[in-house]
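Table S7 (text form). Paired inputs.
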Amino acid sequence: MENYIPFCGTPPLPDELWSRWTFDPALLAGLTIALIAGVIAADHKRRFVVGWALVALLFVSPICAASMALFSARVGQHVLLTLLAAPVIASAFRPTSLPPMPVALAFAGLFWVWHAPAPYQATLESDLIYWSMHLSLLSCAILLFSAMRKAPERALPAAAFTGAQLTVYASIITLAPAPWHAWHVATTLGYGLSPLADQQIAGGLMWVAGGALFMTLIALMARRFLAQAEREDMQSSAN
């Protein structure tokens, strides 16, 4: 694998980061196909386009290159992908009838496995594994938020579990005495960070930003559920 260059390129130095946009033809073709298919299938086309644009930004913009240098950038990318883009895309389609808890368990398994040292390293050595990580995380997150929309009264345990497992993961990497990922041992120094400090920032992003995003989404779902219950009560009273 000595000659292999990761999909987002070699780790950039700070002064070249903002010039590192990713206009890979296969990526642009995939995004275009996804846009066309999604617009055709979506019930709420504008919502889909917004979600699609968020996904595109995460892989075309310098965020992609930054994730090669900083584990915190990779975690930030995944927070935005799964807790911001995914629920927006899920809201553009009819909700799935899948029960929320099994999907929450699958999402937790994917999240923990892909961020473990060996699988994480594998994503830096193969385009296939790299895209398997991102597509599986995004797809499962979309299914999770779709399932929670379909059955908001059954979503609370799944939401609580998802929030708890993300918090546990964040606390583990924040409080770890040593960095997990050998790839970043030398890539963070140009940014004035030790690998351990970079990992701690990643944990903080997951803990604070990820937690805030997730709690906002749960609050919106709770509001929707209460409004629906109120409408049903009013209809029952009228009858």
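Next pair, protein 2 of 2.
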Amino acid sequence: MKLYSHSKLDTFEQCKLKFKYKYIDKIIPEIPKSIEAHLGSVVHETLEWFYANIMKKKIPSINDLIFFYSEKWKKNYSQDILIVNKSLTVKDYFNRGVEFLINYYTKNHPFKDNTIAIEQKIELKLDEAGEKKLIGYIDRLVHNLEKNEIEIHDYKTSNTMWSREKIETNRQLALYSLAIKEAFGKDKNVCMVWHFLAHDMKVCLRKTNEELEKLRKNVIELIDEIEKTQDFPATKSRLCDWCQYRNICEAWK
């Protein structure tokens, strides 16, 4: 059985050479993770801790939330973290996370949306034979009792706001929707919810069963392409500045 993830598929489409380095050669990068990746992981861990408490009927205060974030930031931070944007400091990024969390707390209090799972692992058999399988983790799963639908929540800490087209063509949460429908029933309504924390915005979108099945077919075709690929050229883009394999990349020698 071949295991895939949204990240694995996305990497192949972005840069085939990076895909080879990471998933075929399994090279451990020498370049440290970026400050943006650090910010994103700490914010995610903080919100995971926060909702774990809420599911236990405990609502941490906003001060508790920021304290946990601060402690997690210090624990996970290392001096070699990559800062591409030299006009910003470590403190700027730290404060950005504080702002995300304060805005999120203020907007969503008192947190009565009926969260039923956090960091929920999903496994999706893409083909009938079960030879192609997708795994992933949902940031937060909500059972909206008022609308009788399942919500898939995802947090984005990037400073870039997605276009409507990018949201509508996003593959990750749509694939998660397929997995949720297999678990709760194909007729269950599923809503995909993105929290763009840098913009204090929430965007919701639903996909029809026909749209989701078309996506399943497209992903199977993409996996077939991946498994047939023998040439892995580099693709230069603005993402190269954050790539952990840039120091060994053929395109940057």
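Helices lie at 6-14, 16-24, 35-55, 62-76, 90-108, 164-169, 172-184, 209-228.
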